Amino acid sequence: MSDKLNEAISLHKNNQFNEAEQAYISCLEENVSHPKANHLYGLLQYQTGRKLSGIEMIEKSISLLSSDPQPYMDLVKMYKLENRLDDAIELLRGFYQQFNEPKAMVEIASIATMLGNTNSAIEAYRKAIESMPSQIELHYNLGNALRTAGRMDEAISAYRNTLQLDAAFMPAILNLASQLNLIKDFHEALTVLNRAPHDNTNTYEYHFVTAHAYMGLLEEAKAEYHLRAASKLTSEPLTCFEALAHCLLRQLKHSEAKEFALQAIDIDSHSAIATYVLGDILALSGDIEQARVKMWESFQKNPNFMETIRCLLNYRGLPSKQMEQVVHAAKTCCDSASSYNAEDKSALLVALGAYHEKNDQTDEAFKFLEEGNKLLRSSYEYDETKHLNALLSMQELDSNLLLNAQGHLQANAIFIVGMPRSGTSLIEQIMSCHSKVNALGESPCFPDEVRKLGGSISLRVSPSIINALGENYVKALNLPQNDKPFFTDKLPHNFRNIGLIAAALPNAKIIHCVRDPVETCLSIYKQIWKDASNSHAYAQDLEELATYYKTYVELMNHWYDTCGERIYRIDYEQVVMHPEAEIAKILDFCGLPFENACLEFYKSKRIVNTTSAYQVKRSIYKDSLAISDRYGEKLDELRTSLSTVAPWKRKARIEIQSKP
């Protein structure tokens, strides 16, 4: 028998299939249950086109002798070729049990991935890793499977395990950074990317993932650099052009943003992102009607693009049937089964609340506002005591030092401060229309320079530090070179730094915008803020919001006591009711002559990049007053909490004559 079988095998190897077949048949006539003869004759039959009978013979050989691994492996190959993938997995499971061969689990994972059965793939990779813990590819592929399954924390752990075995394994570096971007751990993503071997950093993937991290950190200039680099390293630049358009839009580089948006549309006329950018440029320029048309076009291209949905919910004038589609899309995106993260869902829920408020459906509006804010608030930890103590610590600055500092005498700065949503954007828009004023928007330069001084600032401030602070701030601003001697800096939270501003910039004017406390807090609650977990962590809970507001009032009253003559308080409600008189007072405080253009601020083509962008493109309107009254008892607790707010200290100027 062995001689006949060896002869058959030799003929088979030499591709003498007819002679080999006769030899196998002769062997099987002698012993029909010979495992190896069944196996090899089945293999020959499969090779010569008799696939079904060949598979059946190899299946028979395994049933006759399960201790030979080769029939298993041949049969697995056949099952895969015949697309019998479930059968292949089942056979591999038996093979693993019989031989304890971890490679069987690797093969199961590969096939399960092909089938889209990621849970089976994950289980198989884990079993393979138990036997082969030093195999880099197994950890990496496990990470990929976990990533596909949406199990982000586990995927991150698997990629980290990969990099422990090979710190320079570039695919794991990129995928780990991508996952960290998705969970908004942008600093850690950049840390991982910075460990990449230098020779592997000039790739499309590296630059694109890096740009995503910088966009998340709101460092758009760095993101722009990497997106431009990425766009030159791919033959399919559509995604880069879309991202560049969005990035440039956020930097107020609207002509360049428009250019890249149009390039993206040239590549793909259905680009919803590029169309959205074009719409937002129109809106920020004040052409709301055309912006609405362009946003609707974007929505038609992609009804699930969240930025477009949010904008359309905020616009007025969209036909009711179209608006119904937008509202339906928003609710679908907020569904628990959708793939959007908590921040994105929160933004849409709050936008739905604002939409229902505009339609006088305040019960429905509050339901969405509350749901959206609770969802976002549950996604981060807020150390309220630490946050409030950081504000109040500014009271520890030496008032005599602040009052007597020389500072930077050349800068004619106009700081516009206050709680967010208190009218700061409106006041800056008014000031921007004056012929002697450059409007710089919400510049981070002053708090950035303060941050560079390090912790315990109240113990370290000295005349030399004060002087350097003013000079460094002006240098960081990179002021426009024109004949306008004044500039505005409208960062609301600079109210924290008023003492340092007054000392470092002796010629600076400080306009403090105030609004009814309940209206202010409600308006903040109706926004989803960028970087909410850091800069606006107080804003998602009405009780925490009220506490923060009261702390802000306490600090502002301290500044009124310390340097009140440098501060002019303007009431939003008074500006709305008596715009000409109030605008004249503001200009007089700043040492500026009255100009009629300031009354027609809404005609300005200036780009505004804040949450109030659309409002300041309208003339003064009174429908923003007393909105909280519509919510009735739902805001009673907020009203009660804010009723204890201490009254404002004196104004620096009790009475200023209007000079129209």
Task: Write structural notes for this entry.
The chain is mainly α and 660 residues long. It folds into three domains: 1-82, Serine Threonine Protein Phosphatase 5, Tetratricopeptide repeat; 171-377, Alpha Horseshoe (Serine Threonine Protein Phosphatase 5, Tetratricopeptide repeat), CATH 1.25.40; 401-642, P-loop containing nucleotide triphosphate hydrolases (Rossmann fold), CATH 3.40.50.300. It has helices at residues 2-13, 17-30, 35-47, 51-64, 69-81, 85-99, 102-115, 118-131, 136-148, 152-165, 170-182, 186-194, 204-216, 220-231, 238-250, 254-267, 272-284, 288-301, 306-314, 320-334, 342-358, 362-377, 384-392, 399-404, 424-432, 445-452, 457-460, 463-477, 498-504, 517-525, 542-563, 572-577, 579-589, 636-642; strands spanning 412-418, 437-439, 486-489, 509-514, 567-571. Strands 2-3-1-4-5 form a five-stranded parallel β-sheet. The protein starts with a helix and ends in an 18-residue tail after the last helix.
Outline? elongated
Helical stretch count?
Answer: 34
Mean pLDDT: 87
Uncertain stretches of 5 or more adjacent residues: 606-619, 652-660
Features:
Serine Threonine Protein Phosphatase 5, Tetratricopeptide repeat; 5-stranded parallel sheet; 3 domains; 660 residues; 62% helix; 4% strand; disordered C terminus; single chain; mainly alpha; Rossmann fold; 5 strands
